[in-house]
Design goal:
0% strand, mainly alpha, single chain, elongated
Length: 105
Amino acid sequence: YNKLVRYNIPTIIEGKGETPVTRVLDDAIYKIELEKKLNEEYQEVLAANGDDRVEELADMLEIMRALAKLEGKTLQDVIEIADIKSEKRGAFEKKIFLEKVIEKN
């Protein structure tokens, strides 16, 4: 354990007749723990396929929502910035892989 969990998890644990031991984090530690959780979920996304992968992506999205909120932004703000970047620089659906750049002399 010793990790950030969704707020209903302690209730679920209690429902199993067990006793969760929890504490509320300050913002600085919360941010660190969100970053750890993002990495954990990233690894789970890489290991998953199909519907399981979509489930793990949803977990990453929830963490991104929380990180955005810490920055005073919403997930919609993040999506809008992504859309602007996509419009300026393109997206990834064309599957372009840059092998190298030949520099001018």
